[in-house]
Amino acid sequence: MHVNEMAVATWGDRSSLALFLDIDGTLVPIAPTPAEVRPSPDLPRLLTRAATDLGNALAIVSGREITSIDQVTQGVVPYVAGSHGAEFRLGFGQPILRPGPQPDIAGLGSEVLALMSDWPGILVEPKRAGLAVHYRKVPHLGQQVWSELEMMLARREQSGLSLLKGDHVVEVRSPAHNKGEAVRRIMKEPAFQGRRPVFIGDDVTDEDAFVVVQEMNGTAVIVGDRRPTLATHQLSSVAAVLDLLARI
Fold first, then answer.
1. Rg of the chain (C-alpha set)
2. Residue 133, SS3?
3. Residues 6+ apart with CB under 8 A from 214
4. pTM for this structure?
5. 13, 22, 24, 104: which one is catalytic?
6. In the chain, what are the domain boundaries?
7. Catalytic site includes residue 22
8. pLDDT single digits (tens) 187-199
């Protein structure tokens, strides 16, 4: 599919739009580990102004947990879906919701840590609804990480878990949670109803959201040159995303 450059002039009336944003590789540059991400000092201001201009119809949808999302954004985004939609915060001051089904991850973290503790360069990131194994520092181990996790899940009876491969990460999570379903849930909120969704993301995990926003007559925007993709528009870099936010 041909992918066009995304220009803010093509957005149309802001009052008709709902904006969904990934974080890593979209709002902040990719770092060796999630904790090493250094957001632009302008990011909170840009997000705050964009949310105001869009009538609060702005959401972060990320594989990060909400606590981690807030650390990156300073908590200025009103609507947030974390862990690929395993948890939500639906507006400022609202509690974090963790709708079912929540997978059985008892013992999973310790099992993975024990298996990979002597793998240099591997980072195991436990989450409430699963875990992520990052291999950015040792990309040659990517297939081995996948294979070991696949065998581990096969040994767990009725785990309700599946594997998802992202950008130098393999995530263990419930297949019921994905970014597309997260977009569907947030679009039910009053601030989003009747608007046309735009989703901006860079990773393969964003493809589920690309499908959903286009089903809703919205726009899917990929950041960078990853291909193939279901996105129809492109922004070249994180800097281009921040520039677009500045011009909403």
1. 18
2. strand
3. 220, 230, 232
4. 0.87
5. 22
6. 4-100+177-246, 108-173
7. yes
8. 999 999 999 999 9
